[in-house]
Design a protein that fits this description.
about 160 residues; alpha+beta; four-stranded mixed β-sheet; 3 helices; about 20% helix
């Protein structure tokens, strides 16, 4: 049986990074406010575990995004499919990433995608053109010094 998973990403401002990636991927930011209210009412968490972001109650230091077509738990807001969880950590990054996200545009749509991501706060680092193997931009997200690749596929299967 295949296992469910989520990608957890360390951050310095989890809610802001979740907002960026939700917009970049066209995902939805999860809304845990119903679960938080229930946990507060039952005395299972205190107000110190809660923050407010964009008019919603969230768990302090955490935010997640999920694919809008995937199932999710109505009470907790937690996605049961493609999901990224961002968590605040106190330490800075001291080594190269061992993981990055490749986000692919539609054929011919790389420049539009890169421009949209820049409007969300991403920054271009460098363009890579490998001819028939592909062309992409290395970019930085607005919250961390981590980079990822946006690419436009050049290799097409034959009809």
């Amino acid at each position: 049986m295949a296992l469910h998973w989520k990608l957890v990403i360390d951050a310095h401002d989890a809610p802001a990074l979740a907002d960026f990636w939700a917009a970049a991927l066209e995902y939805e930011v999860e809304d845990p406010s119903k679960l938080i209210e229930r946990l507060l009412a039952a005395g299972q968490i205190g107000e110190d575990a809660v923050a407010e972001h964009r008019g919603r109650r969230i768990f302090r230091g955490y935010a997640a995004v999920r694919h809008p077509e995937d199932p999710f738990d109505e009470l907790s807001g937690t996605g049961h499919g493609r999901r990224l969880l961002f968590q605040d950590v106190p330490e800075g990054k001291d080594a190269k990433n061992r993981l990055h996200l490749d986000v692919h545009s539609e054929p011919g749509g790389l420049e539009d995608l890169v421009a949209r991501l820049e409007s969300l706060g991403a920054a271009r680092v460098r363009e890579v053109d490998m001819g028939p193997a592909g062309r992409w931009w290395v970019m930085l997200d607005p919250n961390t010094p981590d980079s990822w690749f946006w690419s436009e596929p050049r290799c097409r299967p034959s009809p």
